[in-house]
Amino acid sequence: MKLRARLFIALQHMLPQHFLSKMMWRLTRCEYKWLLKITLPLFIRLFKVNMDEAKNPDWKSYSSFNNFFTRELKQEAREISKDKNSIASPVDGAVSQLGKINADLIFQAKGHAYSLTQLLGDREDLAKKFKNGQFNTIYLAPKDYHRIHMPVDGILLEMIHVPGELFSVNPTTVENVPALFARNERVVCMFDTPAGPMAMILVGAIFVGSIETVWHGEVTPPTAKEIRNWKYDEQELSYNKGEEMGRFNMGSTVILLHANKKMDWDIELKAEQVVRLGETIGHIK
Asked: Which of these is catalytic: 149, 161, 168, 258?
């Protein structure tokens, strides 16, 4: 590990991650016009945000930084794959890693893997559905659209909030912090789909302590000391491919898990590839 990376990782271990994320939560909801006039144009230039794609392209009209960050896209800005057997990208982002789950191990980066069971909140009953299955980890950069959509039609069965740490999920941290995604706070959403069981895991990160879903609202904060779960299997909450299912208030990572026998990732999809909401990333067999 290079010295710069060592210092960056060491700093994250030392910082009060949840306290800083709590302060960021408050700051990004401030409605001080003078602050927005400074931060929004700077953020747009620094991260090269394409405001032409936004349903509301006028940055001056946003009431807070979080409203801007979770901005809605124009309907025509993204096309959802119409092939009924396709699996669509749930977000704008870049593929961190993808492929086959090796029994209970998911590949994180060179020299690092993490436990499927641990990722799912130590739920053996859920992990067994995905052992030797498929995974896809997609990282959202600050410039990306931060709403999350359904990759396939699905019926919501359960949601699990797993408290944890809030390390950054940028490439440097992913490459150097063991079991990062199974250590960070996360929200696990379980669905029944035409591709079989599917888990969408919304991973938190430093300054990203807020994750919400359309059926629940804000799941975190507040964080919790114990794992929480909600059952929906008797409520018939169904969502169509391309329909919004949640959002990150600030950016992070989505991990998709599928059972192996009913789907394959697109043969041309590879690590570090940029993907856009709605484009085909896999196929139902």
From this structure: 149
252 is catalytic: yes
- The residues near 57 (Cβ < 8 Å, ≥ 6 apart) are 51
- Please identify which residue in the block is written with the tokens 């010295």: 3
Nearest C-alpha neighbor of 260 from the set 33, 101, 61, 44? 101
Asked if residue 151 has a cis previous peptide bond (ω within 30° of 0), the answer is: no
Contact 239, 111 (CB under 8 A): no
Residues 202-253 have pLDDT tens digits of: 998 877 668 999 999 999 887 778 999 999 988 889 999 999 999 988 768 9
* Residue whose token pair is 């599928």: 258
pLDDT of residue 252: 86
Q: Rounded CA gap, 95 and 265, in Å?
A: 12
- Find the catalytic residue in 89, 92, 104, 258: 92
147/127 Cα distance (integer angstroms)? 26
The rounded distance, in Å, linking the Cα atoms of 57 and 73 is 9
Asked about 149 being catalytic, the answer comes back as yes
Distance CA 215, CA 247 (A): 12
The secondary structure of 52-65, three-state, reads: HHECCCCHHHCCCH
Give the global pTM: 0.91
CA distance 15 to 194: 43
